[in-house]
Amino acid sequence: MKKYTITKKFLIQEYLRNQKTMKEIAQIKGCARSIIGAYLKKFNIRTRKFSQKTIDACKQTGLNNKRYSKILTYKTLYRQYVINKKSLTEVAKFIGCGRSTVGKYLNEYKIHIRSIRESHLGGHHKPHSKPSWCKGLTKYTDKRLYLAGKKSSKSKIGTHLGIQNPNWLGGISKLPYPFKFNQELKEKIRKRDEYQCQNKECNMTEEEHLVVYGRVLTAHHIDYIKNNCNENNLISTCIQCNFRANYNRDMWKEYYQEIIASKGVLNGK
Ligand SMILES: [Zn+2]
Q: What is the CA(236)–ligand 1 centre distance, in A?
């Protein structure tokens, strides 16, 4: 690579004091603009986003960015946004700039920006087609929603209570736990399980459990029968895993029974 004698002093003099642009300095040195940029970066000199000329011009028009002012004229925007009913994003794509820039220029020209509701209800949809679902619709503006709400709410009330619930087990959840299911037994189970949630994908320790839930690990009845307080039927789990085991009961029963079985082998040794 060709080496240029560009010093920090020179750059400070030309770029900062004389407010020359990178392009102008590059012309003096006979190199590419990007090389000046690289040297500015190397010397930790902060580069300007816009030249002083651009900033002055922007101050006069009140716009932050002068780049698009020739393309984003009032006429263009009015034609695209108001007459053709294009969205901000579509106009931005058409021009090749950001969406927010289009918004800024619309504000500048005092063209009303449509809200979401306006753009979907009275906007660019074909006159005889219904608006699509979930696009700013309410039951007051679309009859379909009103009817659907009426249908479902009337027919579904009370259909999942008690015996009609697929998880219904005969009202056993309200039975009390037996006397022998006490703190001593639970402590024994947790000790056996080394104070860890026995779900292999969880393995939460009791310390973590105390921090997160403010209580010790729970003792879960593997076969869901509260009276069966056999140690082989109890296993330590975190609250989450205990709750999870309320669904897919057969799967979880098998899963924890296998773990207990493997423990039995280990203890036997
Ligand atoms: Zn767990």
A: 9
